[in-house]
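Lecture notes, unit on binding sites. The following record was shown on slide 14. It pairs a sequence with adenosine-5'-triphosphate.
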Amino acid sequence: MKEPFLSAVPLIKRLENAGFEAYFVGGSVRDYLLGRPIHDVDIATSATPEEVKQLFQRTVDIGIEHGTVLVLYQQKPYEITTFRAEGEYRDYRRPAEVSFIRKLNDDLERRDFTMNAIAMDRNGMLIDPFNGRQDIENRIIRTVGPAKDRFNEDALRLMRAVRFVSQLSFQIEDQTLKALSSHVFLLQNIAIERKKAEFEKILLGKSRKQAIEMMLDTNLISFLPGLTHQEKAIKQLLSFHCEHLNKNEIWALLIFCLNLSTNQAEAFLREWRLSVKEIKDIQRILFFFRKRLEQVWTVYDLYSAGPEVIQSAETLYLVINGMESTKSVQSWLNVYQELPIKDRTELAVSGSDLLKWFEKPGGPWVKEMLLKIEQAILEGIVVNNQQQIKEWLIACSQN
Ligand code: ATP
Ligand code: MG
């Protein structure tokens, strides 16, 4: 066994020494078998949350109602979840009742796909009742048990299937895909926050093209906010090479393809439950990207945008034009680096200097003059030095 499992073995040993069963489960075991980087190591155990909390010093209740306790062990967080089996699903969303039954197999049985339903003990031995390993070898996504029942229990699984297509480049097994196509409508019952998490992973996955095409073919896309009857826009998105885009850039590109105005973009992103900060950042990228489509960067735009937005807007500009060179991004960043000032606070004069020099009562002219100074400094007309600015202003006023 290797890291990061090795570091977690003492946790499993402690649970076992106290008389419980404990295994590695879920995405980490799948990614380990796939040779992919492993994010978080999750543990399933026969101990109840209370019992887990008694065994470890530093714990956080992050999902007690789902039987999950977060244990901090040697500075690292581990989710330890009591074996569960799910009772009836009432509204296609969450398990109506979670019983803490003490059996590993039942716990694996309630998991979504065979590749995610493999447990591994502390010696690296696999417990794989649904042949997940074989499906991983064949790169197949298959529900544990009848697909339509599993999608009826929790419709987010439809999106999770597509998300794994995008991230892992797997195929969806026939029966699973059939059930997926005929149950897309169930997604109308799913909270947008949950859809968002999967949608972003779909947009960022290596095989996003296949995944998005699948969403079009199955009409799943119509059950996502703002994406009903938008086939043309989605197809346009598919025509671009998005490999190097980050999350905000890809949202901005999607909005560009949807041809949304600033207000419409705001409403769209709000509906998708993006944070205020995310919305602001995406809007800034869009603003400078749209400007960039009309003209080359001016020094004032570079200055107003700042390096991150320059990078994103220029990258989008290249993507839209089918250009791959990162040279132009770097050369604009170099121009930015050469700017005499990077921020308004660096100006060598302030409003009160202007009031003193011109002996006029305050008013909108102060702000206007500061803007004029800022622009002149950026364009190299005057140096950012108090005396020189003063002389330049006086010369200007005499013309
Ligand atoms: P990632 O690597 O992106 O975290 P993951 O498979 O670990 O992928 P998580 O959302 O972290 O996904 O879930 C952990 C595990 O919990 C999954 O591997 C799966 O076994 C189970 N699981 C998660 N969501 C569901 C669901 N909606 N229905 C059934 N089982 C689920
Ligand atoms: Mg995970």
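Take-home: Residues 26-27, 39, 42, 111-112, 116-117, 154, 156-157, 160 surround adenosine-5'-triphosphate (ligand 1) (CB under 6 Å).
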